[in-house]
Design goal:
This protein has 197 residues and is of the alpha/beta class. The chain is 38% helix and 20% strand.
Length: 197
């Protein structure tokens, strides 16, 4: 009798533990709904906005890269701070743009800031250190970013990819710690969504 009671108790305990584990494991739908969202939604059109080019062929000019690139595939990296994860992401985007230059892939980095003069100095130093030829670095005056781009206050980094002026991929991060090597790979893998087949 004692063995039977003990077996039943162990069975009940195991069921309870499994239930707790399953309850703690979010479903795919829940995980998606909990994901941080920032930037233009997928398949929506981009808008025009001006930046100051700090590096690249248009260095020193105020221009609209979104306009200049037209319907070409574009990777736009919006960031609010220069730190190692951001530099690594920018380097990877530059390399990707170089690799797919034959498919007219374009990219640019946009420093969103309320202190454009200071940001310009930071970017000039970064450009001198790395010499990225396929990634113009730019400054946008205003940490909130271009209004119609819907970049959240909490977004530390927002990467949007578009082609024919419509967004096809969007990655947003509240913390730079989230920009791991795996995340960078995932971001760059989405480049296939904007390249001509």
């Amino acid at each position: 009798m004692f063995k039977l009671v003990k077996s039943f108790f162990m069975f009940t305990l195991m069921c309870s533990l499994v239930g707790h584990v399953l309850a703690a494991e979010p479903t795919e739908q829940e995980a998606k709904s909990d994901a941080f969202v920032s930037g233009i939604p997928l398949d929506q059109p981009i808008d025009t906005f001006n930046v100051l080019a700090v590096s690249g062929p248009s260095k020193g000019r105020t221009l609209c890269y979104a306009c200049q690139y037209g319907g070409k595939p574009v990777i736009a990296v919006f960031f609010k701070k220069i730190d190692k994860p951001v530099v690594e992401l920018l380097a990877a985007v530059n390399e990707t743009a170089h690799s797919f230059e034959n498919k007219k892939l374009r990219a640019f980095g946009i420093y969103l800031t309320d202190e454009p003069d200071s940001a310009r100095s930071e970017l000039e130093k970064l450009a001198a250190e790395h010499g990225w030829e396929n990634l113009p670095l730019t400054v946008y005056d205003g940490e909130e970013g271009p209004v119609n781009y819907q970049i959240k206050d909490r977004a530390a980094v927002n990467v949007m990819m578009w082609v024919k002026a419509r967004v096809k991929a969007n990655h947003a991060y509240q913390s730079l710690d989230e920009l791991t090597k795996k995340e960078r790979q995932q971001i760059l893998q989405d480049t296939e969504k904007i390249l001509p087949q």
